[in-house]
Amino acid sequence: MGSQVVFKNGTPAKSFYRRYNIEGLGNNDFASLAQLLERRLKKEDAQAPDLLLIDGGKAQLQAVLKIVKDLKVSVDVISLAKERASKGSSERIFIPRRVDPIELGSHPAYKILIQLRDEAHRFAITGHRKRRDKHLMNSALLQQTKGLGPKRYKELMDKLFDMGASPSKQQLKEALNWPDSLIDEIFKTLTTEEKKAQ
Questions:
Q1: Cα–Cα distance between 152 and 129 in angstroms, integer?
Q2: CA angle, corner 39, sides to 34 and 42, nearest 5?
Q3: Tens digit of pLDDT at every position of the chain (198 positions)
Q4: C-alpha span between 64 and 147 (Å, rounded)
Q5: Which of 51, 122, 142, 170 has its CA 20 to 30 A from that of 62?
Q6: β pairing state of 51-55 and 76-85
Q7: Dihedral of the CA atoms 46, 125, 134, 27 (nearest 10)?
Q8: Beta carbons of 141 and 189 less than 8 angstroms apart
Q9: CB neighbours of 37 closer than 8 A, spacing ≥ 6?
Q10: What does each C-alpha distance from 41 to 8, 20, 62, 68 come to in angstroms?
Q11: Which residues face 92 on adjacent strands?
Q12: Are the C-beta atoms of 73 and 83 separated by less than 8 Å?
């Protein structure tokens, strides 16, 4: 799954946020980027942004520049990445035709870029969780758990809605006054189904 967030005049424009299901590419980041950008920029009514910010380093930037060129879209592109070092991490901007990245300081414009990237992360993570939770809530394997009849199943769904679809075994025990054997089976099934949904 890929995500797009949009800022206008320095603030989130949530009506333009989008999630894209990336199909048939596994964990190929570059191919996923290409599919997402083609779907975003090839729409007839799509308006190219003033600036396209990519989450990644020099390699991701070069890949996106090629995609944008192939699509014949005129848009400025930069990428933002963290450099992890022994003394912590620092944010760096990669821009076209510049060998070395720019180290981010405390300028307000830099803060907006970081806010944009962090908002894209938050939006993407929320989407992954919703998709995972939907998969788990519709799990036939869970519905067939021995000792989990219709009444208990509804109660479990209500609790999972509050807790999220990945509770710990202890959370399940505290939320549901059920036999330990049933809690163990439910937890085992949730763990199995969560792996399938990832």
A1: 23
A2: 105
A3: 678 889 998 899 999 888 877 766 656 777 778 888 888 887 756 678 899 998 888 988 998 999 889 888 889 999 998 776 545 557 889 999 898 888 877 777 788 888 898 898 888 877 766 766 666 666 777 778 888 888 888 888 778 766 665 788 998 998 898 999 999 998 888 887 766 655
A4: 52
A5: 122
A6: parallel
A7: 80
A8: yes
A9: 64, 67, 68, 71
A10: 18, 13, 17, 8
A11: 81, 103
A12: no
Tokens matching residue 80: 């933002």
